[in-house]
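Example 3.
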Amino acid sequence: MRTVTLASLRLYTRRYVAAFLAVAIGVAFIITIGALNASAKDGLTAGAGQPYRGSTLVASDVYEVADARTIVEAVEADGGAATVLGYAMEPLRAGASNGDSTIGVVADDAALRWQELVGGSWPRAPGEVLVDEQAAKSNNVSAGDTVQIGGREFDVVGVASAGEALTSSDFYGLWADVSTFEKSLWIDSLPLRGIEEGAITSVAPEAVVMSTDDHVRELQAEITRGADTLTLMLLVFVTVALTVAAIVIANTFSILFAQRTSDIAMLRCVGATRAQVRRSVRLEALAIAIASSVVGLLAGVGFGYGVVAVIRSLFPAVGLGDAAVAPLWFVAAFAVGVIVTVAAAWLPTRATTRISPLAAMRPAGDSDVRTTAGKVRVAIGAILLAAGAVLLALAVAGANVVAMLGGGVLFFVSVLVLGPVIVPPLIRLAGKVAGPLTGATGRIATDNAIRNPKRTATTTSALLVGVTLTSAVVVGMSSAGAAVDEESRASYPIDAALTSPSPLRADALDRVLAVPGVEEAVALDGVTVTVDGVATPVVGLPRDTSVIDGDRSTLPGEAEIALPFEILDELGWPETVTVEAGGRTIELRPTESSSPWGPTPVVDTGTLRFLTERAEPLALWMRTDDGTDVNDLVGDLEAVATSLDATLFSTIEKQDFIATQLSVMTAVVVGLLGIAVLIALVGIGSTLGLSVLERRRENALLRALGVTRRQLRATLVVEALLLAGAAAVLGVAIGTFFGWIGVKVMIEQMVSSGSVLAIPVGQLAAIVAIAAVAGVFASVLPSRKAARTAPAAGLTLE
Amino acid sequence: MTQTSATHSPSATADGIAARARALTKTYGRGATEVQALRGVDLDLPAGRFTAIMGPSGSGKSTLMHCLAGLDTPTSGEVTVGGQQLERLDDTALTRFRRDHIGFVFQAFNLLPMLTAEQNILLPIDLSGRKLNASTQHRFDDVVDVLGIRERLGHRPSELSGGQQQRVAIARALVTEPDIVFADEPTGNLDSESSREVLDFLRRSCREFGQTVVMVTHEIDAASYADDVLVLADGQIRAHLERPTSETLVSALQGVRA
Ligand SMILES: Nc1ncnc2c1ncn2[C@@H]1O[C@H](COP(=O)(O)OP(=O)(O)OP(=O)(O)O)[C@@H](O)[C@H]1O
Ligand SMILES: [Mg+2]
C-alpha cells in the first residue's frame, strides 16, 4: 500500500494545493503572532528601565502635584536627588503650528537625566526647555526657538532623544516649571537617589517606595502580561482562520476522494481491505499535514520577522524590539497545523472505506456525483437552530454575553449544517435574477454551481464564516460609534467656542464662518462681571440656539448661571452665587453640573438684560462638520482666534478621538479576519479548479458545440461570483443579525437613549463587493485551465 | 496502394460539396514519440449523403473527423466546410462556425448531466443567443417526433437509456440544420437493437431532411447503412466504396489489415 500512497501523492500533489495553502497560512499566522509577541516584549521591557537610569529608589502611587513637590523638596533637603516622571498636556504655539503638546520633566540632577541630549544644551534655568527629536520635526522647532506652552514662553535650548523609553514627551522642562501646570500634570512615579526609604514614607505616607530594580521588574512583568493578553486576543483570530482552513481542507479531501472513487474501488477489487485503504489515504493526509505545516513555519518566520521590521521602521514609537520565535511556538504551531489537517481529513478519509469494489465497474469519469441533504442533517440543523435562537432570545432579554456567544455559535453551526438546503436555492435565485444578463453561460454556471449541494455549501461556508464575523464586527462597531457619538453630542453640545475678555471685532463672525468645516456660528453678547468676587466675562444665550447640537438640559434657565469647572472649583461649589455688574447685583443658582458651554459663564437673556443695557459680543459658538479633517479645522480656528485676540475652546478633538479609535479598531479586526477570508477564497479557487478537472469532458463537449473560450471562462467566473456572492449576501445578513444582537446585549445597556443600531450600508455593500471581486480572482486560474480544454479532448471512451 | 478520391463527380462545385480536405496531415508529439495520425488526406464529402469512415483501430478515423469538424487543427493541409475554409478562422470564429454549421454525435458523454433532454437539444441555439422562432420550433418538433423522444424531453441524461441518450444527441445535432453532422462511433456503446434504431435515424435524417452525415464506425453492419464508405489505414484513404455490400466491405477491410 505504501507504493499506492506515494504514487497518489505524486500524482495528485497539485490538487492538494488548496489544503496545503490553507494549513500553511494558518501555521504562518501563528508564528507571525509569536514573533510579534516576542518583539513586543523585547522592545517594551527593554525600554521600561530607561527612565529610572541613575536612581536607586522609586516612589510610586503619588497622584497629587503637591505630594510630589513635598517629596522632591524633602529628598533635596536630605542631600539626595529626585525627579518626576510624567507629563502635562498643554496647548502649544510654536510658529505656525498649534495644538496640544506634552511636556515632561528633565532632572535637575545630571545623574537622573534619562533623556539623551542630541543637540544644544541641557536646561539650566527655569524658562528653558528641551524639545524631543520627533516633536522637533513634526512642529518644526529647533534649539534657539521660543515656544509658548500653556500660555507661557519657553526658550528651546536643546534637542533630546527618548531612546527606547516608553514614555516620551514633546518637550522636557525643569520640575520648577512643569510643576506649575498643576491641573494637567499626570504623575507616573519619582526616581530617587542618595536617600533612604524611610525618609520618603515619613513625608508622604501614601507613596509606595521600592528599589529601582524591583520597580522595573514589576513594570516589565506588567508589560509582559499586557503583551500576552494581546497575544491571546490575536489567537482568537487564529482560531477563526484555522476553522476556515479546516472547512477548506475537509472540502478539498472529500472532492479529491470522490474523484478517485473508481481508483479506490479498483484497489478494493484487487484485494485491498477497507483498513488498508483507510490507512493509505490517512497517511496521505498526514504527509500533506506535515509538509504544509513545515512550509507554514518557514513562511511564518519570514513573514513575522518582515512584519516586525516594517513596523519598527515605519512606527518607531510603537517600541517593538527584536523579533524572535520561541521554540515552544514552533512546536505548538506545527502540532496545531498537523492536528487540524488530520482532523479535518478524518471524515472524508473515512468515507473512502464505504466505497464498494463494485464502484469500479461503473463508468468512470461520470461526474454526476450528486449529494443531497439527508433528513438527519435537516433535523440536526433545525434542532441547533432552535436552540441557538432560544439562547439568543435569552441573551437579549437578560443582557447576557455568555448566552449570546453560546447562542451565536449554535445558530451559526446550524446555518453551516443546513447549508446544503439553504445555499443552492439562494444560488438558483441569484442565477435566475442574473439570467437575462448572462444567458446560456449563466444558466450553465448556475447549474454547475448547485449540482452538488453539499460541496457547494461547504465551499461557501468557508467564506461565510469570515463574512459573517466581519459584518457583525462592522455593524457592532458602527453602532458603538453611533452610541458614542450620541453620548458625546449630549456631553459636548457645542463643538467649539471663541471667547474673549474684550469685545470681539465686528467681522469675527464672518471670519469664523469662512473657515471650511464650520457649519454654523452665532455671536453671544455679554458683559464683564464679578461672580462672588471673581472677575469674569459672562454671556447671555443667543436668540437663535440652532447652533446647539446635543443636550440642552444644562442651558441656564431663569435665575441660573452655567459656570465652568474652574470657577466652580475656585468658589468651592456654592449653592448660589452673587453676580455683580456696574453696581447691579443678582443672586443666581449655578446649573447642576459644571458647564459644557466653554470657559465663559452663561446666563439667560433676561438675566443679561438685567445686568447691562450695553452688552457686547464676547463669545462665538459654532457647530462643525464631522467630515472635516480635525487637525486642519482646529489649526484654522486657532489661527482665527489668534488674529482676533480670542481663545479657542474646542471639543472637536475629543469627539474625534473616540471615533478615530473605533475606526482603527474596526480596521484592525477586519484586517485580522481578512486572513480567514483569504483562506476561504483559496478554498473557492480549489473547488472550482477541481471541478474543472472533473468536468473536462463536459467542457470539451461545450467547446465542440460552440461555446467559445471566452464563454467557457465566463461560466467559471459566473460560478465563482455565484458562490462568493451567495456566501457574502448570506454572511452579511447573518452578520447584521449578530451585530444587532450584540448591540442589544452589550451596547444598549450602556447608553441612555434606547436603540442605537446603526447599519453601515456602505460598508456592508463593500463587503459583498469585495467578496465578489475576490471570488472572480479565485476563478482566474481554474477558468484559464477550463478554457485550455481542447474541444476534441475526452470525447471518446478512454 | 492506390489512392482513391471520394469525389463523385469531378465537376462538383462548392455548393455540391459539404466538406473538403486537401493534403491533410496531422502529427502528434515530437521526436521519438511522434505519431503521424494523418498522412496527406484528400477528400470531398458530397452534400446530402450518408458517408461512413471505416478502418482499423489507430488508423486515424477520429483524428480525420476532428480535423474536418474544426475540433482539432491539422498540422498541414486545408479543410473547407460549407464553403468556409477553416484555417482562416481564429478560435472564436471557429467555435461560432461549429455552433452554427456543424452537428456532433459522439460515442458517449454527449449530453450535459445537469440539463434536461430538451435543454440539451436546444443548447446550441441557446448558446448562439437566438430566441426560439417559429421555424426552429417547427424543426425541433419534427426532429423530436422522428426520433420519438417527446416523452423523454423533461428527463435528465442519467434517467435515459444509452439509446435514448444517443437519440437526444442526434436531435441536438440536427436541430440547427447544420451543413454537416459528424458522428464518431455513435453506436459503439449500444446493443444491436438500439444501434439499429440510431443508424436508421441517421439515414432518415439524410433522406428526410437532406442532411449530410459523416459517421466513423467499426461495425460492418453500421457501415452498410451508408451511401458511401471510405476505408482508412495508416492515416491515408485506401478505398472508397459506393453502396457496398457486406462482402465488398469485409474484403476491403481485410485488404488494409493485411
Ligand atoms: N492526442 C494524441 N496524442 C498523441 N497521439 C495521438 C493523440 N490522438 C491520437 N493519437 C494517435 O494518432 C493515431 C490515430 O488516432 P485516432 O484516434 O485517430 O485513431 P482511430 O482510427 O480513431 O482509432 P479507434 O478506432 O481506436 O478509435 C493513433 O496512433 C493514436 O495513438
Ligand atoms: Mg476513434
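DSSP finds eight helices and ten strands in chain B. The beta strands of chain B are 17-28, 35-46, 50-54, 76-81, 84-85, 102-105, 180-184, 213-216, 228-233, 236-242.
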